[in-house]
Amino acid sequence: MGALSHIRVLDLSRVLAGPWCSQNLADLGAEVIKVERPGVGDDTRHWGPPFVKDAQGQDTAESTYFVCINRNKRSITVNLSKPEGQEIIRQLVLESDVLIENYKVDDLAKYGLDYASLRQIKPNLIYCSITGFGQTGPYAHRPGYDYIVQGMGGFMSVTGEADGFPGGSPQKAGVAIADLFTGMYASSAILAAVIHRDRTGEGQMIDMALLDTQVAMMANVASAYLSTNEVPRRWGNTSPIVVPYQTFPTSDGWMIVAVGNDSQFRHFVKVGGEDHLADNPRFSENPLRVQHRTELVPLLEAMTRKKTKAQWISLLDEHGVPCGPINNMKEVFANEQVQARKLAISVPHDTAGTMKLVASPIRMSATPTEIRTAPPTLGQHTDEILREYLKLDSSAIEALHKHGVV
């Protein structure tokens, strides 16, 4: 039994931050009921290509985006614009511990599905709302998108090549980090709220905002500004205070070299057959290398291009120089450590046959995470949920389908 096997989550969220949160809870054992729009479903079901392929190599209707954030869930389709659909949600709330939603501020109030309304029928409900800018403030009613928030929250101001270098400009992350971190913070908040409820019997509202999360995760960068009033700037893949501490090209790809002291620098250039660089008075000590980086780095790049990535990693590891590859995803899943940790898993799926997913990174000795079911097809569990929790018979369920309620 998972650590959260006693918890039921009603998930009205779509796209990334909310589903990422509920998937974390599901991996830990919670039962998650995913509520989707009839006939359409979560927006990310249609975000492709790429789509998951079946055993014959043909595309299924399952987008790779959707499946990465919706395993271990059951899907029910409910039309929230209909009073009968709203009543289904209220009945499911009575059977649930947690509700997660990411509608615009006040959108659910018109259906009587906001926290103020639902707490009247379930006082101990834990209600987690995820929005771009939170429930208060002048931006509360603005739609929030990860890309915009990465810019507004300062992340892009310190990400990308420095001004004056080729390609120097602000850069977003390769994945939606504001969404993902908000989902992780929301998971933690919900777990804290569950503990509080178990101790006191009191439910509560959780107000999560992408912008709040993005500013908070700036960590030492934000702290440095608040302490000094100096605006941090972009340094790309280099360090402002250590050289060489950056990416380098090899004959067949890229690697990272993180030289932390003068001895490591000497080993680095010796392995590359350029011992003289360590004896050069402009490069012999780190402060000098920082001062003369524009002269030194091109010489090091010419050196690193003479060997393959694998050759460099092996030689530098042998000589104690911190280094690592920059792997593409094929190389990631071929890596022996990734394979040893079993980060790629396969689960049976109704349309794909077998679906490959990334395992949860959470490792617990007593209550391990478990991938119990593949991401659901749209409305896959509608009828069984209506029977199980609302005690409806076949004729009542058929009527709901006929009238477009589910």
UniProtKB/TrEMBL annotation:
Membrane-spanning parts: none
One GO MF annotation is: CoA-transferase activity
Query: Which superkingdom, per the lineage?
Result: Bacteria
The protein's UniProt keywords, in alphabetical order, are: Transferase
InterPro entries, per database record: CoA-transferase_III_domain, CoA-Trfase_fam_III, CoA-Trfase_III_dom3_sf, CoA-Trfase_III_dom_1_sf
Q: Does the keyword Transmembrane helix apply?
A: no
Q: What is this protein called?
A: Crotonobetainyl-CoA:carnitine CoA-transferase CaiB-like acyl-CoA transferase
Q: Which organism is it from?
A: Polynucleobacter sphagniphilus
